[in-house]
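A favour between colleagues. Tell me how you read the following sequence-structure pair.

===
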Amino acid sequence: MAAAATIVEALSAAVGGAVGRATSFPIDSLKVKISCNTDDDKPSVPDLIRKNGVLGLYNGVHISVLEATTSRFITFGLYNMLKTKWENTFGDEPNMFFSMILAYFADLVCVPAASPLELKVSNRQVGNKKGTEQTLPYGTMVKRSFVASLFLSLKPALELTFYEALKKFYIRKFDNLSALGALGLGALARAGATLLIYPILRIKLREMTGKSGKDAEGKFPLAEYVRILKEEGIQSLYSGLSMELCRGITQSAVMFMVKEKMEQIIIQFAMKIMLARARAAKKRRH
């Protein structure tokens, strides 16, 4: 039964992750183009849309959806397994702190699979053409992404922990979690996690797209963090925050809404199959 619950959780999260990423991808493209521009004269959203066209904002969406599907499947599936193991060992659900630790570890496991896809998507979004893309050997890429993810995995860990805490509170008040409720809780959870982690996210993006300082290479993220503070000021660390909030809230709100709905659909479908089999077995006995 625990294995079945894990599969349902992983599959529903994968579908939710794919739909959420596809929905928010144009906003993500705009955010990347603005965030990676180090000039004082930042391009405006209308200028970027005129320059790239609406379809240009979807450049790389298929790769990004694949990355989201894979990473959400692994993260949510592994997180559910770890929680089940915790409950079997200690006889109770983990509290918020230990839930965050479990979610953090589950997200770190995705790094080897997600790193190449994330780099490819970032190159597409920033407009690096073939032959000028920021490329790294796979081992180096995974190593740097893993170092960055030691910080960045706090965001999905916090997001998932916040969402589960909000969901428990919501169900205590209203009994059932509606699709609109999941949408709102996902938005709140993502907003809180993003505000805490955004400076590190911005630094990672600049290195992945080749916009970071040369002195920071191989020392990411601390060296780049210090360089930005010295040369560009603390406000630069929050450049594009409004766009990231818009993108992240859209993605997570849609993801959790679709995930909760998919869980219901899968469970209802499984129950119908079990009921049909029980009826068939009863007929055979008679």
Observations:
- The mean pLDDT is 81.
